[in-house]
Amino acid sequence: MVTPGQIAGSVAEFASAVRMDIVPTGQRVRIDDVLTAAYAQALENEKNDDVKAVLSGWGSPLGNFSGLADAGSS
Prior knowledge:
Blueprint: H1 4-20, H2 31-45, H3 49-57, H4 68-71
């Protein structure tokens, strides 16, 4: 599992590479896994039944991102 610190480090490295016009190095991160785990934890920990019902109605946390990976490859 990827930790928030690893994601923050990756974002910082990417931002630095963009500023310096270089290609970033490092490890690829599967954000799908991070989003899915965070969503499951939010559902499990939510105490307010109204909020939990809304979160449950969202379905997959990845649904809003479908097709984005393909959009950048054309």
